[in-house]
Amino acid sequence: MQGTQRILTDIPRQRLFLIRMSQKIGVSRACERMGKHRSYYYYWAKRYQSKGTRGLIDASRRPKTMPRLSSGEKIKAVVKMRKRTHYGKERLHDELKDRGILIAVSTIGKILDRAGLLLKQRSYKTQKKHTRSYNLIYPGQRVQMDIKYVPAEKCPFGKRYYQYTVKDECTRMRYLAWHDSIWTQKAVQTLQEAEAFFGFKIDCVQTDNGIEFTFNYTAQLTAQHKEPKVHPLDAYCQAKNMRHKLIPPGEKEINGKVERSHRTDDEEFYRTLKDRLNLETLIRRGRRWMMFYNFRRRHSGIAKKVPGRFALERLLLYPHRVLTACSFLSNMC
Predict the structure, then answer these.
(1) Which of 1, 10, 142, 239 is the most buried (most CB within 10 A)?
(2) Mean pLDDT split into 10-residue runs, the chain, 333 residues
């Protein structure tokens, strides 16, 4: 008896206390002291007599039969695609619809919840300073550039890798590069490779105020006897007639497109890596992920179109933006 009582939580213990008190002072007085109706007592007293202390625990309210429950094949298809792609319920709905499997978005969410495949996201209570949403007109009008730290559990012990990301705001196309250090020349190299990969001219590059992108916030500014040092990225942008735009400090929401894409990298790329990788293997797998992101994966920010195909549609409207059309079309094939 004592072992059974140990598994009871607070509410079942109160019900047991009410039943034992009623045996001493009566049902009416016991219910009055506990603040319960007599029907509450009789319901739980009946369960206590038939099942013992285990009858005081709340039973599952799930219906015994569910006539509208999805078929086993649909449930298996949802779970299998979720484990393979780590897509959310809306993207899973689109992919399954292409394969002829029609299932509601809300139903997919319930299937994932029952299978334990939903991950709780961190909630940030800080107030956003920049809430304006916008889309640019033509490819290369402005790109967002940022650095993401590769998760430590995917790097060899004692090493850190860094992902350089360049994302076009109009087409949502991205170029990714991985390095084992943060160096100012790496930003210039990545921007050169991104322009060659995109195949269209870049007018403006937008970054944060990190030392890998600017020298505006360094201790050298306080040294009056030194000449202001020009950052290699600023020199490159000036030589290529590009504008280098810096976002205000503390307002990373302005670079929200590239920041949001880093979350996609965590959910759909880095989470699929099972072990620690050296830099060469990471680059090889990362390039396959980059090609999938640009030329196969749908993007909800451009009406669920593929970024590469959307860029081709835009370039047909602005043909003067094209620098190397042949290399861009080869990526689409």
Answers:
(1) 142
(2) 57 91 92 92 92 87 72 87 88 89 89 84 60 78 95 91 95 95 91 92 93 78 63 93 91 89 93 90 95 92 91 88 60 53
Cα–Cα distance list, 9 to 12, 22, 54, 310 (Å): 6, 20, 11, 57
Helix (H) or strand (E) segment spanning residue 311: helix 307-317
Q: Is residue 245 part of a domain?
A: yes
d(CA 101, CA 126): 40
Q: Note the pTM of the prediction, 2 decimals.
A: 0.72
Q: Are strands 174-179 and 204-207 parallel, antiparallel or unpaired?
A: unpaired
Handedness of CA 189, 194, 196, 201 (dihedral sign): negative
Q: What angle do CA 113, 117, 119 make, to 5 degrees?
A: 95
Q: In the beta sheet, which residues pair with residue 200?
A: 322
Structure tokens at 267: 């959910």
Q: Which among 10, 29, 56 is the end of a domain? A: 56
Interatomic CA distance for residues 172 and 242, integer angstroms: 19
Query: Do the Cβ atoms of 1 and 42 come closer than 8 Å?
Result: no
Domain that holds residue 292: 143-332
